[in-house]
Specification:
single chain; 395 residues; mainly alpha; Growth Hormone, Chain: A; 2 domains; globular
Length: 395
């Protein structure tokens, strides 16, 4: 059915699939009408999102563990069922935040984690010569989802006769159908048949149990945790940060919309950088951006210059885009492609500790009454990341 697609066609399908799957990052918009109608508190909705990130990672891990027992098609079909079930339950809620946690934070997020793992693993296998570009394109699509599907959902919420319930049901049906279609189109190359895009297995392929025993893995894990923590925390402030630097509330909302765009561009740029400049230069440039981003935001706060604040948070969003793309490329470069599905899902667990960083940062903002101390901490974390990063070696 899919033999005539070609690897670039497969990449396009992968990007479309991940654009739909990235809906989990539109939570800030998707939660709004429910929180308003049912009176959910900020801490309750934040916990649901933290749960979402955790089960997104666990779904990817489960997919990696099952990759040698279940085909990509079967795993994608399971994911489709979980996503449809999650959105359907969410669309019929009567007010229980606990049920929303299960529907969106466990079922839908777990299914999307499976999709993420299958699509990236299978598609990257077609691009041994352009791992960074392929990863970057897919990650960019995943990142753009919050902007595209989030804005669409916001419009549907306000339309007479639709509202949030029908929107959730519609999203579940459409996203589920895309996943079912992708299950039949997205597959890794058959290396036994010597597909042109799939070279012989890398001599340096490393089993997951051996990978987690290596110092290099734990250094990568710490570095990408810090990178994701700095990026996600900074852009999580969004509108409120821009207002703190002197922008009007109206302008702050408009500029905050740029963050998703630059987050997506960061994913594509870092992938292309990896292919062009190689592993070592990518490490250095990543750390340079990681330090420059929070420092620029800090300068904006100290000087009260909105333009610098915009540049600072755009850099933070751009930086956040580096994390998933570069971690994917590094996992493949360091530990080979044969066990990539599981190896990458284990490395992707960095999102779990990183997801708690924004919560801690929010408490620091509340305690200090401003963002200065928070961005000092973020800059310090980036400096620690640089030290870890330059010590990482392939062995």
């Amino acid at each position: 059915m899919n033999k005539g697609i070609g690897r670039w066609g497969r990449l396009v399908m992968a990007c479309v699939t991940l654009l739909m799957a990235g809906v989990i990052y539109a939570w800030s918009i998707l939660k709004s009408p429910l929180a308003e109608e049912f009176g959910w508190t900020l801490s309750q909705t934040q916990f649901c999102f933290t749960l979402t990130l955790c089960f997104f990672c666990l779904g990817g891990l489960a997919s990696g563990l099952l990759s040698k027992k279940l085909s990509s098609r079967v795993r994608m079909l399971i994911a489709a069922v979980l996503i449809i079930a999650g959105f359907t339950i969410a669309g019929t809620l009567k007010g229980s935040i606990a049920l929303m946690d299960i529907a969106y934070g466990v079922l839908a997020a777990g299914g999307i984690g499976i999709v993420y793992n299958v699509v990236i693993s299978a598609t990257n296998a077609w691009f041994p010569d352009k791992k960074g570009l392929a990863s970057g394109a897919m990650m960019m699509s995943f990142g753009f989802s919050a902007l595209v599907l989030g804005k669409l959902a916001d419009k549907l919420f306000g339309m007479p006769g639709i509202g949030w319930r029908s929107t959730y049901l519609l999203y579940g049906a459409v996203i589920g159908c895309v996943m079912i279609l992708a299950a039949f189109l997205i597959q890794a190359p058959d290396q036994k048949k010597g597909a042109s895009a799939a070279k012989a297995a890398d001599e340096n392929d490393v089993e997951t149990k051996d990978m987690i025993r290596r110092v290099s893995f734990w250094k990568l894990f710490v570095f990408f945790t810090l990178l994701a923590a700095v990026g996600s925390t900074a852009i999580g402030f969004g509108k409120d940060f821009f207002v703190a630097t002197g922008l009007s509330a109206e302008s702050a909302v408009t500029v905050a919309g740029l963050l998703s765009i630059f987050n997506g561009l960061g994913r594509l740029f870092s992938g292309a950088l990896f292919d062009k400049a190689g592993l070592r230069k990518t490490q250095y440039i990543t750390s340079l951006v990681a330090i420059l981003a929070p420092l620029t935001a800090l300068i904006a706060l100290l000087l009260g210059v909105p333009a610098i604040g915009v540049a600072g948070l755009i850099l933070c969003a751009f930086l956040y885009g580096f994390s998933p793309t570069v971690s994917s490329a590094f996992a493949s470069a360091f530990y080979g492609t044969r066990n990539f599905a599981l190896n990458f899902s284990v490395l992707n667990l960095v999102l779990i500790p990183a997801s708690f960083a924004s919560t801690l940062a929010g408490k620091l903002v509340e305690a200090s009454g401003g963002y200065v101390s928070t961005f000092i901490v973020l800059a310090a974390l980036s400096a620690v990341g640089l030290i870890v990063n330059i010590s990482i070696k392939k062995a």
